[in-house]
Specification:
heterotrimer, A alpha/beta (139), B alpha+beta (400), C alpha/beta (157), A: 139 residues, alpha/beta, two-stranded antiparallel ribbon, globular, B: alpha+beta, 3-stranded antiparallel beta sheet, 14 helices, disordered C terminus
Chain lengths: 139, 400, 157
């Protein structure tokens, strides 16, 4: 009964944590633009949260930089189970133009497991919404 | 009793996720220290391995909000190295996109400032209207954020009559809306009370610490690369350099609102005087050994690229200094003797990238070493409580 | 104020300390001084000509030596002071006394080129990660980076 309830509430209202792991900010403003009146993800019950301890879904933008690696793992561990990771943008998938730079490890999946990849440089807010909805369908 | 507070690195306030260590006595910040490098990707090294054309797209991805600034600054430099003169129409379109970018960046910043001051409806309003600018940019270039419109020797996409008309129509709406923000943002008593006097940076300090952009202009120094060292077509376009002399966050807001109106005028002038002709000239693959300093006024301040070529199709050295780095030293100065609760607002004031709403601050208790995570919204509530209480003592000592 | 007047003033005040002065483009002046005279030149530029704004400091690896460029700006032009230091003994005086805003750029130079800045108020690393191996300076030309092989999650198909 309780698991049914949590599953239902998770489907209806996933809380997201937005994490910049070294992005150029383009994906970040598009993620925030998805929260503002034109796109408005709050109508799906999606809320942006400040701390990983409240979040269900981590939205990662940008390639994983060497300095962020340990922090990324720490934030992943702080998120309560079950947790999902969405890699937003080409950088988070593979490193994009920064591939081969000395301080970039590569995509997010080199550090933590990723559930959904959203391509685009930068992604459009519609694509972010689509990605989150696809993740919900997987649950 | 002094405490140390680490802020970040999960900190979308700045372009880079950045680590801050703040030493406080009670509520008052005594010292601040900055640790960069969370977002350091090694672009300068990477640029040495890529060709001149590939580097346009690399420099575009230095920053997502002022993507056009970095490419323009880079492309201008390379054009000088290759001794190219881009056609007039190309330069007009380049300047047009630059000004549209300034409008979107300043609208974004206004929203963020409103959000940090606890005025969320202002945030939603400005971000809704920002979408109008994004639509224009999408019509011109095909993309919302990384326009990819610059190329060596001109621009890649032309404007047609319909687009010009569409931009002029949208500009009318934006003007009307900005007029409303101007009244709201500068006369709304609670908003003004929250911004006034916060993050004080005197004129002397601003000059000594080499601050740039609206941060510098809000301290009463009329320095603007567009006027001082005109590039593209700024020597033909009439506009004014906007300054304020209050030296605080309110002044920075006023400067940005004034600049919005200047930008609308520039855009209108550019569209009405758009010359006919080609938009780009063909560029060679190599550049002769030479060096160039290229300057550009990005929405946040002076952007400078130093480019050195060595006769091949790759640069010998590309040095990039983005405006935010120049403002860090000034930020530390602004934070000192302020309140912890003002940290988000002061950060927001130098840089419009603080878009991503809330972030977490870990508070380490120096006595027990225990770590506590406080979300920014609680800090904001504290700050609003403080600003409600009008009697502020700047130099108050904590009774411990 | 024009370019020629600035060049004349430089020749007049610094006399034989000027190693070279060029004016490759309008509003761009490059002045070369020896490293011993760097502080004097910066002081002269700040006090006598009123160039208070330091845009940035760039370093270039020339092979046998490092070239350091101090880009100053005022409301007319961009004035660059350049100096050269030998690669085997990279020592540079700090200009933070004169221009407090230079601190971040000097720390960046230390990180990227392994140049020792004398009398720097705050010598800690700025940009490179905490676990960065000592003695690696990424912007030196002989420093090469090899990308480690990537793991494809779920294996290659």
């Amino acid at each position: 009964m309780l698991t049914k309830l949590t599953r239902w509430s998770r489907l209806k209202s996933p809380w997201i944590l937005h994490l910049n792991t070294g992005a150029c900010n383009a994906c970040d403003i598009e993620v925030v633009a998805a929260l503002t009146p034109r796109f408005d993800v709050e109508r799906f019950g999606i809320l942006l949260k400040a701390t990983p301890r409240h979040a269900d879904v981590i939205i990662c933008t940008g390639p994983a930089t060497r300095q962020m690696k340990d922090r990324l793992i720490r934030i992943y561990e702080q998120t309560p189970e079950p947790k999902f990771v969405i890699a937003v943008g080409a950088c988070a998938m593979s490193g994009c133009v920064y591939r081969g730079a000395y301080n970039v490890i590569g995509g997010i999946d080199q550090v933590i497991p990723v559930d959904v990849y959203i391509p685009g440089c930068p992604v459009r807010p519609d694509a972010v919404i689509d990605g989150v909805v696809k993740l919900l369908n997987k649950l | 009793m002094r405490f140390q507070i680490p802020i970040g690195p999960q900190h979308p306030a700045l372009k880079e996720p950045i680590g801050l260590r703040i030493t406080v006595e009670g509520e008052i910040i005594r010292d601040a220290d900055i640790r960069l490098g969370y977002n350091h990707r090694g672009i300068e090294k990477l640029a040495e391995q890529k060709t001149w054309i590939q580097n346009i797209y690399l420099t575009e991805r230095i920053c997502g909000i002022c993507s056009h600034s970095h490419t323009t600054c880079y492309v201008q430099g390379v054009e000088k190295l290759m001794e190219l003169q881009p056609p007039k129409r190309g330069l007009y379109i380049r300047t047009l996109v630059a000004e549209l970018e300034r409008v979107h960046s300043h609208l974004l910043w206004l929203g963020v400032a409103g959000h940090e001051a606890g005025f969320d409806s202002f945030f939603m309003y400005t971000w809704r209207d920002r979408e109008i600018v994004m639509d224009i940019l999408e019509r011109i270039s095909g993309n919302r954020v990384h326009y990819g419109i610059n190329t060596i020797g001109g621009v890649r996409r032309d404007l047609d009559e319909l687009q010009v008309k569409y931009i002029l129509d949208s500009l009318e709406i934006l003007r009307k809306r900005s007029e409303y923000y101007k009244n709201l943002g500068t006369t709304e008593p609670s908003f003004v009370a929250r911004l006034a006097g916060v993050g004080y940076l005197s004129k002397e300090d601003a000059i000594a610490l080499c601050a740039v952009g609206p941060t510098l202009r809000a301290s009463g120094v009329p320095m603007d690369v567009r006027k001082d060292d005109p590039y593209a077509v700024y020597d033909e376009v009439p506009f004014e350099v906007c300054t304020a002399d209050t030296c605080d966050v309110l002044g920075r807001a006023v400067v940005r609102i004034k600049e919005l109106f200047q930008s609308y005028n520039i855009i209108e002038y550019l569209l009405k005087n758009l010359p006919a002709g080609e938009i780009a000239v063909k560029a060679p693959r190599r550049a002769k050994p030479n060096e160039v300093v290229s300057r550009y006024e990005a929405p946040r301040g002076e952007n400078i690229h130093y480019i050195k070529s060595n006769g091949t199709d790759k640069p010998e050295r590309l040095k990039v200094r983005a405006p935010t780095l120049a403002n860090y030293a000034a930020t530390i100065k602004m934070l000192k003797n302020g309140f912890i609760a003002d940290v988000p607002l002061i950060f927001a004031a130098i840089d419009p990238c603080i878009c991503c709403a809330e972030r977490a601050v870990a508070i380490v208790d120096a006595r027990t070493g225990q770590e506590k995570v406080v979300p920014m919204n609680i800090l904001k509530q504290i700050s609003q409580k403080i600003s409600a209480n009008k009697e502020r003592k700047r130099e108050a000592e904590w009774p411990l | 104020m024009n370019d020629q007047a600035l060049i004349d003033k430089a020749n007049e005040s610094l006399k034989d300390k000027v190693l070279a002065i060029t004016n490759p483009a309008p509003r761009r002046i490059f002045l070369k001084v020896a490293v011993e005279n760097l502080l004097e030149a910066v002081n002269w530029l700040k006090k006598d000509l009123g160039f208070t704004h330091l845009s940035t400091i760039s370093g270039v690896d020339l092979g046998q030596s490092f070239e350091i460029l101090y880009h100053f700006a005022n409301n007319y032009c961009s004035f660059t002071i350049r100096t050269e230091i030998p690669r085997d003994n990279p020592q540079l005086p700090s200009i933070c006394e004169l221009i407090p805003g230079a601190i971040l750029y000097e720390r960046e130079l230390q990180d990227m080129f392994g140049i020792t800045i004398q009398n720097i108020p705050d010598p800690r690393p700025l940009l490179l990660p905490d676990d960065w191996p000592v003695g690696n300076y990424p912007l030196r030309k002989d420093w090469k980076y090899e990308r480690p092989p990537e793991v494809i999650p779920g294996g290659k198909k």
